[in-house]
Task: structure prediction
Amino acid sequence: MKDTRARVISNQEVAQDTYLMILECNLPSSVPGQFVMVKIDETSCDPFLRRPIAILRQGDNSIELLYKVRGAGTLELSRKNSGGILSVLGPLGNGFSLSERNGTIIYVAGGTGLPPILALAERIRRGYLIVGARTRADIPLWKRMEGISGIKALAMTEDGSFGRKGMATDALAELTTQDPSPCIIYACGPAGMLKAVSEQARRIRARCQVSLEERMACGFGVCSACTVKTSEGSKRVCVQGPVFEADLVEWGA
Amino acid sequence: MMDTSVRITSTLTLKNPVLSASGTFAYGEEFSKLFDLSILGGILTKGLSLKPKEGNPTPRVCEAPCGLINAIGLENIGVDAFISDKLPFLCTFDTPIIVNFFGTREEEYELMAGRLNIEGVSAVEMNVSCPNVSKGGLEFGKDPGILRNLVAQVRKATEKPLIVKLTPLVSDIGEMALAAQDGGADAVTCSNTIPAMAIDEKTWRPVLGNATGGLSGPAIKPIALRNVWEVAKRVRIPIIASGGAGSWQDVIQFLLAGASAVEIGSASLRDPLCFRSIIEGIESYMYDHNLMSVYELIGKLKTP
Result:
């Protein structure tokens, strides 16, 4: 973990309200699923807190961030031009386990849960990538996902405007029925989707790792804001997560 | 030779007036990965209770203009785990360790103070002001008679410097500070977060799981500044400021208002390295203004 200055190289809208930002910065090396806390404005105290954003890709001296404009902070971030300076704290969190070598790999991304999942698929380069979204405009970087060697990308939209009509979990159920060989599932997305994915994984006895989202203040473990209930007690999403074994998480109603 | 140190009691001297704040520093481990904690004037640790405590439902934080509202709910590992698992690490740093604690009953405060009357603990800060728990704290901090008695009882249970963290939620904070002093407090911390709320107009629900929380950050600094000034007029014991400070300029302002030291809380969530720049900023300021001691600033506000 390091707090460092970052220079905006580019910041482009790649889907509706979704931006791909490339930053020149020197961070310790990260694993997919880890994130950074981005300070949006150095001089103004409004917005006050940093924003947690998953690392999509890390180069020698750069990182890529994919984020959706959801409020005042990310709106401000979307207005940054190349050459702009930000502060970046990271890499933070635990990231996905990369040790599984056997079996089919299925990545499930729902809505804004795409970045850490795409990061992982691009690292492992093997398996099925299911991308679920409300509508076509909510799917960024489709060409890039289709182009990952070793990855078969499947799009699901709720309104059927792109890929197939349905939920990401429909595609997951189909895949695991067609191919009942052992698999590992990695998922990130809305809590409802993660709960459903985790139940499917339990039924077929597949290992499943989920990346959780929770409101954070610090992002590095000191404020205890982002706790989640697990069978091993309450855990801080920012340092003991954001990636958890799905069967440990106590899903709410 | 410029001297940035301040003396809180005969056994508690801070090398500079910059402290971490309780609740935003956990038990020091995370921050120690970012900078050498020995540069601090002192470390205030996360508020402890007799038994481990779970805290409130999430969401526990939300942003507010120039600050944040939190309702963590005093989640902590309990005093015993702190002493065995956290204190030894904290003691490796060359800075006083000030342990914040709270209770739900008078006897619990006494027990806690007694338990913390051990080597390695430099001082204790008793919280009578957390707005986010149904029991424990706030009700002790609102009545001067009750507060005086509580402090007097805790005073008997510890030889450590005893700091009382006051609530801003009273009509006369000076009177509460005086009650703490009369009870035997060595210093007062002034003050805590300010009860606040956020509502989501889309869902018609409170944003926080606990419905209400405590506002902190730059938004409350002017209120804290005024509270320190009011308290400084009433008590002779040192005042530790807490509320919205995040820059060296803020620290200088709190010193002028009458504080002997200043806790940095919310600002360190945004900028974990701010302690370093604040301490350096104070040194530069003193050098530029030819000040030999921090005491040339404390309470030196010029008023008409």
